[in-house]
Design brief:
4 helices; alpha+beta; 180 residues; two-stranded antiparallel ribbon; 5 strands
Length: 180
């Protein structure tokens, strides 16, 4: 009951302005939830791609460790290559038992890069280094969801002649260093 001067006024129901304010508040809350969901999906996709890059880096590291003679001969040191072409054809060596360490290294890199290109959009990789200094594996991939973001410290270390930042703005990099 509301008292207005000497008269008693009874309000029944909810006023139209109260309903409009409630609708506006709910609309803003829904837009905020949609934005949060979009950001969460973007970061989940980026985390998934980085996890795949980490797995592919570990895969190549294990291949190098399995072919230590090829690593000692420098067969895994592939500098001066450009993104995103595979460039080389499949090695002629079909069975690992019949391959030289250099042929096995070429086969490992070809299979690794083919797997990268099939598993990740814009997937490509390079390896450089030696047994004494260690190897650096760089996995490049397209990440259009974070194209405008600043480069993280790992990606800054990946800038080489392989991926031109002007031509490939959406290309990101994941770098791993290891010793065989």
């Amino acid at each position: 009951m509301i008292l207005a001067g000497n008269h008693t006024a009874i309000q029944s129901g909810i006023g139209m302005i109260e309903v409009l304010v409630a609708i506006v508040i709910i609309a803003f809350a829904m837009f905020a939830l949609i934005d949060i969901q979009t950001v969460a999906l973007r970061y989940q996709k980026t985390a998934h791609v980085r996890a795949m890059a980490s797995q592919f880096s570990a895969d190549l590291a294990e291949r190098v460790r399995a072919n230590i003679r090829g690593a000692h001969s420098g067969a895994y040191d592939l500098s001066q290559q450009t993104y995103p072409t595979l460039g080389e054809s499949a090695p002629s060596c079909f069975h690992s038992a019949n391959c030289t360490p250099q042929e096995l290294a070429a086969k490992d890199i070809h299979e690794w890069r083919t797997g990268l290109s099939n598993a990740m959009t814009g997937g490509w990789g390079e390896i450089a280094g030696s047994v004494t200094d260690g190897f650096t594996v760089k996995v490049y991939f397209l990440d259009t969801l974070t194209a405008g973001d600043e480069l993280d410290p790992v990606a800054k270390n990946c800038q080489s002649g392989a991926a031109d930042r002007v031509l490939h703005k959406d290309v990101h990099c994941f770098a791993t260093a290891f010793f065989p």
